[in-house]
Design goal:
Pfam families: Acetyltransf_1
Shape: elongated
Structural class: alpha+beta
Bound molecules: coenzyme A
Low-confidence stretches: none
Radius of gyration: 20 Å
InterPro entries: Acyl_CoA_acyltransferase, GNAT_dom
CATH superfamily of the largest domain: Gcn5-related N-acetyltransferase (GNAT)
Mean pLDDT: 96
Keywords: Transferase
Helix content: 25-40%
GO molecular function: acyltransferase activity, transferring groups other than amino-acyl groups
CATH topology of the largest domain: Aminopeptidase
Protein name: Protein N-acetyltransferase, RimJ/RimL family
Largest sheet: 8 strands, mixed
Distance between the termini: 30 Å
Length: 298
């Protein structure tokens, strides 16, 4: 029987999960919710679990976070696909693994289930991390950084940066909504994150021309690089390093001992910049999504 989690299920669901304390923390914060957690139950026994995540303020979940099946389930792929189909799209599936384990069965079986349920577009994201054991990257001497309180100015800057972006979600968002509307949606998402809005910066070169945007931020796991972007006319000078170094310094000055960031594997200039700035890949986030145009209303 497929049903959402009932009050009495909590203890049994926690026993199924690799990281029960994370579940409890996010459940408390309402990022996980009973009606966003589906179980496959056989009498009193839980045979499968699917957990979706959203912001505490979200009306609907944004991402499927966890798929679990009991070891005696014969067809976990079929069970997971059936669980995933319970939640109306759109949402993404975020699957975390270690570098080198992208083709391991715990990954491929879950991706097969996601594909069966319609989430057939797969994007690999590299998860980078800087820790205070690493030296701080050199702070820019060729750019200056200014705050910009007007969200519409930031949206216009994000829209300019979106041109020829190699970031998969940006390309999809621009195709779906147009550059400005997609950028407004992004700004709204960044504002829901934990990092203070007043640390967002616009970067200028020595002639006073706009170079790009640098957004330090934070999520449930701690400080993160929110966004780095260079406008098309200024690309090719390695300015991503200056923006990333600025973000790293701002967060480290605020006491961050570990800073994390994701970028698409296909976004090679950005991945190279993380590596030049002393960030290291510590995990892979595989994102499966519904192909654009296949989700009614999106
Ligand atoms: C990622 C990004 C910040 C890199 O910009 P940058 O600092 O100018 O990059 P670099 O100067 O290190 O570029 C290295 C090379 O990649 C090329 N390059 C940079 N961005 C490119 C793009 N979007 N498309 C194609 N080539 C690009 C540069 O022209 C340069 O080529 P060259 O070696 O032949 O001269 C920029 O592409 C960008 O703003 N993209 C959109 C936003 C984004 O993806 N942000 C990261 C996700 S959070």
């Amino acid at each position: 029987m497929f049903r959402t989690m009932a009050e009495g299920d909590l203890g049994r669901v926690l026993k199924c999960l690799d990281d029960p304390s994370r579940f409890e923390r996010l459940f408390e914060a309402t990022s996980y919710r009973p009606d966003w957690t589906w179980v496959a139950a056989d009498g009193d026994e839980i045979k499968g679990v699917a957990v979706w995540w959203g912001f505490p303020t979200s009306e609907r979940p944004l991402a499927l976070d966890t798929l679990w099946a009991a070891p005696d389930v014969d067809d976990p792929v079929g069970l997971w696909a059936a669980l995933i189909r319970r939640m109306p799209p759109p949402f993404e599936y975020h699957l975390f693994t270690s570098p080198g384990r992208e083709k391991a069965p715990e990954v491929t079986l879950r991706l097969a289930a996601a594909e069966l349920a319609g989430l057939g577009d797969v994007n690999e994201r590299l998860r980078y991390q800087w820790t205070d054991d690493d030296p701080l990257p050199r702070r820019s001497t060729r750019l200056t950084f200014e705050p910009e309180p007007d969200d519409e100015e930031f949206a216009a800057l994000f829209a300019a940066i979106a041109e020829d972006s190699l970031d998969v979600a940006t390309r999809e968002g621009v195709a779906r909504l147009g550059a400005l509307e997609h950028s407004r949606e992004d700004i709204a998402l960044y504002k829901q994150m934990r990092g203070p809005r007043d640390q967002w910066r616009v970067a200028f070169d020595q002639d006073g021309q706009v170079v790009g945007a640098a957004l330090p931020s934070a999520n449930d796991g701690g400080p993160v690089v929110g966004f780095v972007g260079v406008v098309p006319g200024q690309r090719g000078h390695g300015y991503a390093d200056d923006l990333l170094a600025e973000i790293t310094h701002v967060l480290a000055e605020d006491g961050a001992t570990c800073i994390r960031a994701d970028t698409d594997k296909v976004n090679k200039p950005m991945a190279a910049s993380f590596e030049r700035c002393g960030y290291q890949v510590f995990a892979i986030r595989i994102v499966a999504s519904f192909p654009p145009g296949e989700v009614a209303g999106s």
